[in-house]
UniProtKB/TrEMBL annotation:
This is DUF8021 domain-containing protein. Pfam families: DUF8021. Residues 1-17 form the signal peptide. Residues 150-262 form the DUF8021 domain. It comes from Decorospora gaudefroyi. Keywords: Signal.
Length: 291
């Protein structure tokens, strides 16, 4: 009798093997949002024992980093990558005394447990930071799932974001900007003058700036690709280093519709002595890239 029982148990175990579905990733992303809202990590059921937490590219602890506090979340958006078994979540917090805009990528292991929470945490003093502005411009945008018959392939979605990142270093790269297109960078919105125009292709993009160490999360259903990368020299106090940065792209019909960025400075103001970034975001950027 014993071998028979053993076989049944083995079958049951393999039938329950972890499958990385959208539903599972959505639940996991929701647990992350709950963690950020409550500060209670014990409710996060699928955290791996060896989970690593990174905050702005430095190893940190969820026990004393931003996940420990609990915050009032004004807006959130998660994208799900079943191919890589990763999630990415954008969180906007405007409540005083400490507003935040946070982009987080999470990686799950083969058992379905989160073994990496990688966060770009931006607040006052970071590039163009204005959570009230971010919340407002985000609220007028539409990031609904793409209807099935209009979805781009994973390859096309990823290529849209990759082209933008590549273009920062190689000006000959063609970036598929759509019309309309708008970039939300901290609280600065390129679409504010004309919401129906292509305001992403307005010049002033970085030139000869390598975007290094890229980590992608791609969601074909949402038409979104998020890239974590090192934005070389964004912080003038460390000109040759990559500042922790996230660029999130919404792709519709193969073209970029929206861009959201979260860029952390090493020192408040990115070493620009209060001269930038906005309101003259583009001007300051162009000037420094020409130097
Ligand atoms: C932040 O953005 C809001 C909404 O666009 C704007 O009213 C406010 O003046 C901005 N604050 C700063 C400090 O730029
Ligand atoms: C906004 O952009 C659209 C498309 O480029 C253009 O047709 C329209 O005239 C612009 N409107 C304003 C007020 O500039
Ligand atoms: C993060 O740190 C590593 C070294 O610890 C470095 O290679 C990388 O460029 C840094 N920046 C980003 C954004 O990954
Ligand atoms: C900022 O101010 C310091 C001290 O006055 C100066 O050394 C530095 O060159 C300035 N940096 C920029 C980017 O203007």
């Amino acid at each position: 009798m014993a071998p028979f029982v053993f076989t049944l148990a083995t079958l049951a175990a393999s039938a329950m093997a972890f499958e990385c579905t959208r539903e599972y990733l959505q639940e996991t992303a929701d647990r992350y949002v709950d963690l950020m809202a409550t500060g209670q990590h014990d409710r996060f059921e699928n955290l791996a024992y060896d989970m690593k937490y990174m905050e702005n590219n430095k190893t940190a602890s969820i026990l004393n980093g931003v996940p420990a506090f609990g915050m009032t979340i004004d807006a959130k958006r998660s994208i799900l990558d079943t191919t890589q078994c990763k999630t990415m979540t954008e969180i906007i917090v405007t409540q005083p005394p400490h507003p935040y805009v946070i982009h987080t990528q999470m990686t799950l292991n083969a058992d379905g447990n989160v073994n990496l929470i990688d966060s770009i945490v931006t607040d006052k003093g970071d590039w163009a930071f204005n959570a009230t502005g971010t919340k407002y411009w985000n609220s007028i945008e539409s990031w609904d799932p793409i209807p099935e018959d209009q979805r781009d392939s994973r390859k096309v979605v990823k290529a849209g974001g990759k082209a933008y990142a590549d273009r920062c270093n190689d000006v000959s790269v063609h970036v598929p900007f759509g019309t309309p297109c708008a970039r939300l960078e901290g609280g600065a919105y390129t679409g504010r003058g004309n919401l129906s125009a292509n305001t992403c292709d307005i010049g002033g993009l970085p030139e000869h700036i390598p975007m290094t160490n890229r980590k992608y999360v791609v969601d074909e259903v949402m038409g979104v690709v998020d890239i974590f990368m090192g934005f070389t020299g964004l912080d003038r106090t460390r000109n040759t280093e990559g500042a922790p940065d996230s660029h999130m792209f919404r792709i519709e019909n193969g073209k970029i519709r929206y861009i959201h960025t979260a860029s952390a400075c090493f020192v408040d103001g990115c070493g620009m002595n209060g001269t930038g970034p906005p309101p003259q975001l583009r001007r300051h950027r162009s000037l420094r890239y020409l130097e």
